[in-house]
Amino acid sequence: MAFIRKNVKPNLVASSNVSDDSSSAETFTVAQLLELAKRKGVETSPLDVQKLLSVLGVELLSVPMKDEISGVLSRLENKDGWVVKVNALHHPNRQRFTIAHEIGHYCRHRWQQKEFQDLNFFRNGESNPMEAEANRFASELLMPEPTFKEKVRLFAGSIEAIAQYFKVSTLAVRVRAKNLGMKGHGLE
Ligand SMILES: [Zn+2]
Protein backbone atom coordinates (compact mmCIF):
# COMPACT_ATOMS: atom_id res chain seq x y z
CA MET A 1 0.00 0.00 0.00
CA ALA A 2 1.27 3.35 -0.83
CA PHE A 3 -0.01 6.78 -0.47
CA ILE A 4 -0.88 8.24 -3.77
CA ARG A 5 -0.21 11.90 -3.73
CA LYS A 6 -3.09 13.56 -5.35
CA ASN A 7 -2.35 16.41 -7.61
CA VAL A 8 -3.62 19.19 -5.41
CA LYS A 9 -5.57 21.63 -7.43
CA PRO A 10 -4.55 25.16 -6.54
CA ASN A 11 -7.51 27.12 -5.26
CA LEU A 12 -6.14 30.23 -6.81
CA VAL A 13 -5.34 30.14 -10.48
CA ALA A 14 -3.90 33.07 -12.34
CA SER A 15 -6.88 34.28 -14.28
CA SER A 16 -4.83 34.37 -17.39
CA ASN A 17 -6.00 33.46 -20.81
CA VAL A 18 -3.29 35.54 -22.34
CA SER A 19 -0.12 33.51 -22.36
CA ASP A 20 -1.37 30.03 -21.59
CA ASP A 21 -0.92 29.20 -25.23
CA SER A 22 2.86 29.53 -25.30
CA SER A 23 5.64 27.86 -23.31
CA SER A 24 3.31 27.50 -20.36
CA ALA A 25 5.27 24.48 -19.14
CA GLU A 26 7.98 26.83 -17.96
CA THR A 27 5.81 29.58 -16.57
CA PHE A 28 4.82 29.95 -12.96
CA THR A 29 1.24 30.71 -12.02
CA VAL A 30 0.45 32.91 -9.02
CA ALA A 31 -0.76 29.84 -7.10
CA GLN A 32 2.48 27.96 -7.76
CA LEU A 33 4.52 30.96 -6.73
CA LEU A 34 2.60 31.36 -3.47
CA GLU A 35 3.15 27.68 -2.75
CA LEU A 36 6.85 28.14 -3.38
CA ALA A 37 6.90 31.16 -1.07
CA LYS A 38 5.27 29.16 1.72
CA ARG A 39 7.71 26.27 1.25
CA LYS A 40 10.63 28.69 1.47
CA GLY A 41 9.30 30.38 4.58
CA VAL A 42 8.44 33.67 2.88
CA GLU A 43 5.63 35.57 4.63
CA THR A 44 2.65 35.60 2.27
CA SER A 45 0.11 37.69 4.18
CA PRO A 46 1.04 40.39 3.63
CA LEU A 47 3.53 39.13 1.09
CA ASP A 48 7.23 39.84 1.61
CA VAL A 49 7.86 40.65 -2.07
CA GLN A 50 11.54 41.42 -1.59
CA LYS A 51 12.19 38.04 -0.02
CA LEU A 52 10.18 36.29 -2.71
CA LEU A 53 12.28 38.02 -5.35
CA SER A 54 15.46 36.79 -3.67
CA VAL A 55 14.04 33.24 -3.44
CA LEU A 56 13.64 33.44 -7.23
CA GLY A 57 17.31 34.41 -7.46
CA VAL A 58 16.57 37.86 -8.85
CA GLU A 59 18.62 40.80 -7.64
CA LEU A 60 16.91 43.94 -6.39
CA LEU A 61 18.31 47.43 -6.75
CA SER A 62 16.53 50.43 -5.34
CA VAL A 63 17.55 53.44 -7.39
CA PRO A 64 16.16 56.94 -7.85
CA MET A 65 14.60 57.24 -11.31
CA LYS A 66 12.43 59.66 -13.22
CA ASP A 67 8.96 59.82 -11.69
CA GLU A 68 7.20 58.21 -14.65
CA ILE A 69 9.36 55.07 -14.39
CA SER A 70 8.17 52.55 -11.83
CA GLY A 71 10.75 49.88 -12.45
CA VAL A 72 12.74 47.77 -14.83
CA LEU A 73 13.34 44.04 -15.08
CA SER A 74 16.42 43.19 -17.09
CA ARG A 75 18.69 40.31 -17.88
CA LEU A 76 22.19 40.74 -16.52
CA GLU A 77 24.90 41.09 -19.12
CA ASN A 78 27.49 38.27 -19.07
CA LYS A 79 25.60 36.45 -16.36
CA ASP A 80 22.67 34.12 -16.35
CA GLY A 81 20.57 36.17 -14.05
CA TRP A 82 18.04 38.95 -13.78
CA VAL A 83 17.78 42.19 -11.88
CA VAL A 84 14.84 44.35 -10.83
CA LYS A 85 15.40 48.05 -10.45
CA VAL A 86 12.69 49.83 -8.55
CA ASN A 87 12.21 53.58 -8.29
CA ALA A 88 13.47 54.46 -4.81
CA LEU A 89 11.62 57.78 -4.92
CA HIS A 90 8.19 56.17 -5.11
CA HIS A 91 6.02 55.38 -2.07
CA PRO A 92 7.00 52.03 -0.48
CA ASN A 93 3.57 50.57 -1.29
CA ARG A 94 3.98 51.50 -4.92
CA GLN A 95 7.44 49.92 -4.90
CA ARG A 96 5.86 46.72 -3.60
CA PHE A 97 3.42 46.67 -6.50
CA THR A 98 6.26 47.39 -8.94
CA ILE A 99 8.31 44.49 -7.59
CA ALA A 100 5.28 42.17 -7.79
CA HIS A 101 4.66 43.35 -11.36
CA GLU A 102 8.26 42.60 -12.32
CA ILE A 103 7.94 39.17 -10.67
CA GLY A 104 4.98 38.70 -13.01
CA HIS A 105 7.16 39.47 -16.04
CA TYR A 106 9.89 37.23 -14.67
CA CYS A 107 7.53 34.29 -14.17
CA ARG A 108 5.49 34.66 -17.31
CA HIS A 109 7.45 36.56 -19.95
CA ARG A 110 11.19 36.41 -19.46
CA TRP A 111 11.65 34.14 -22.48
CA GLN A 112 10.18 36.76 -24.73
CA GLN A 113 12.27 39.82 -23.95
CA LYS A 114 15.46 40.64 -22.11
CA GLU A 115 14.23 43.91 -20.70
CA PHE A 116 10.90 45.20 -19.39
CA GLN A 117 10.67 48.89 -18.69
CA ASP A 118 7.65 49.96 -16.76
CA LEU A 119 5.96 53.28 -16.71
CA ASN A 120 2.84 54.06 -14.71
CA PHE A 121 1.02 50.71 -14.57
CA PHE A 122 -2.59 51.63 -14.17
CA ARG A 123 -2.56 54.30 -16.81
CA ASN A 124 -0.57 52.54 -19.49
CA GLY A 125 -0.82 48.88 -18.63
CA GLU A 126 -4.13 47.93 -20.13
CA SER A 127 -3.28 48.45 -23.78
CA ASN A 128 -0.52 45.84 -23.87
CA PRO A 129 -1.59 42.25 -23.08
CA MET A 130 1.77 41.48 -21.46
CA GLU A 131 1.51 44.52 -19.19
CA ALA A 132 -2.10 43.74 -18.35
CA GLU A 133 -1.08 40.22 -17.39
CA ALA A 134 1.81 41.46 -15.21
CA ASN A 135 -0.60 43.83 -13.46
CA ARG A 136 -3.10 41.08 -12.84
CA PHE A 137 -0.33 38.80 -11.63
CA ALA A 138 0.91 41.45 -9.18
CA SER A 139 -2.59 42.12 -7.95
CA GLU A 140 -3.31 38.42 -7.32
CA LEU A 141 0.08 37.84 -5.75
CA LEU A 142 -0.24 40.71 -3.28
CA MET A 143 -3.94 40.15 -2.62
CA PRO A 144 -4.79 36.44 -3.01
CA GLU A 145 -8.54 35.93 -3.36
CA PRO A 146 -9.27 34.03 -0.11
CA THR A 147 -7.24 36.45 2.04
CA PHE A 148 -8.66 39.43 0.21
CA LYS A 149 -12.24 38.32 0.82
CA GLU A 150 -11.43 37.60 4.46
CA LYS A 151 -9.98 41.08 4.96
CA VAL A 152 -12.90 42.73 3.18
CA ARG A 153 -15.15 41.10 5.77
CA LEU A 154 -12.81 41.85 8.68
CA PHE A 155 -12.44 45.52 7.78
CA ALA A 156 -16.12 45.88 6.82
CA GLY A 157 -15.16 46.89 3.30
CA SER A 158 -12.97 49.84 4.31
CA ILE A 159 -10.73 50.35 1.28
CA GLU A 160 -8.18 52.28 3.36
CA ALA A 161 -7.93 49.57 6.01
CA ILE A 162 -7.61 46.83 3.39
CA ALA A 163 -4.92 48.82 1.56
CA GLN A 164 -3.07 49.32 4.83
CA TYR A 165 -3.19 45.61 5.60
CA PHE A 166 -1.85 44.53 2.20
CA LYS A 167 0.53 47.53 1.98
CA VAL A 168 -0.78 48.56 -1.41
CA SER A 169 -2.44 51.70 -2.76
CA THR A 170 -6.18 52.20 -2.38
CA LEU A 171 -6.38 52.12 -6.19
CA ALA A 172 -4.82 48.64 -6.19
CA VAL A 173 -7.51 47.52 -3.72
CA ARG A 174 -10.28 48.98 -5.87
CA VAL A 175 -8.95 47.26 -8.98
CA ARG A 176 -8.68 43.94 -7.14
CA ALA A 177 -12.24 44.25 -5.82
CA LYS A 178 -13.52 45.10 -9.28
CA ASN A 179 -11.74 42.12 -10.84
CA LEU A 180 -13.26 39.84 -8.22
CA GLY A 181 -16.70 41.10 -9.17
CA MET A 182 -17.26 42.84 -5.84
CA LYS A 183 -19.33 45.96 -5.45
CA GLY A 184 -18.49 49.34 -3.93
CA HIS A 185 -15.01 49.73 -5.41
CA GLY A 186 -15.98 52.99 -7.07
CA LEU A 187 -14.39 52.16 -10.42
CA GLU A 188 -16.22 52.24 -13.73
ZN1 LIG B 1 5.47 45.69 -17.07
UniProtKB/TrEMBL annotation:
Domain of life of the organism encoding this protein: Bacteria
Span of domain IrrE N-terminal-like: 75-177
Pfam families found in the cross-reference section: Peptidase_M78
PANTHER family: ANTITOXIN HIGA1 (PTHR43236), BLL0069 PROTEIN (PTHR43236:SF2)
Name of this protein: ImmA/IrrE family metallo-endopeptidase
Lineage start: Bacteria, Pseudomonadati, Pseudomonadota, Gammaproteobacteria, Pseudomonadales
